[in-house]
Amino acid sequence: MAARNRLPPWHDQIRLANGRELLIRPIRPDDAVPLRAGFSLLKPDEVRHRFQHSLKELTQENADRLTRPDPKSEFALVAAEPLPPGEALVGGVARVSIVADSREAEFAILVSHYIGGMGVGRQLMLRLVRWAKGKKLERLCGDVLEQNQPMLGLARSLGFRQDPTDTPGLVRVTLDL
């Protein structure tokens, strides 16, 4: 039997509708520099949809925190060029974090407009759901701005329900696992 080339766990090569190849993989500390460099390429709406307020830059501290998730309670993925970490341009980031003393996790996803609308957000979300189920969690949820219709549509298509929050303009999407 011939040996097959296998990717490490949580690594998946995908081809977008435009033919571009991306590697979805766990985030690594080497990704901090490309994340900071690529942040300036994001549109203000993309940043606001993810962080729910404007940010001019991704600080070194925030980049370091993002690229070093706690393996017991957090999981983060990138959708990047299939190059070594630290060299690959990162087009999408997804993160999930278990809420302390609960069976619930919160997610956040950011996909650049350069690859938006090509299914990258769906691919990332499906992996976050799989991770949360593997942790035997009961719910996966996230806060989404009302005007972020692509994210709300994605959540709806995957079975998330939408609930109002105490914050005007914000919707909580929840998936019972």
TrEMBL record:
<protein>
    <submittedName>
        <fullName>GNAT family N-acetyltransferase</fullName>
    </submittedName>
</protein>
<dbReference type="InterPro" id="IPR000182">
    <property type="entry name" value="GNAT_dom"/>
</dbReference>
<dbReference type="Pfam" id="PF13302">
    <property type="entry name" value="Acetyltransf_3"/>
</dbReference>
<dbReference type="InterPro" id="IPR016181">
    <property type="entry name" value="Acyl_CoA_acyltransferase"/>
</dbReference>
<feature type="domain" description="N-acetyltransferase">
    <location>
        <begin position="22"/>
        <end position="177"/>
    </location>
</feature>
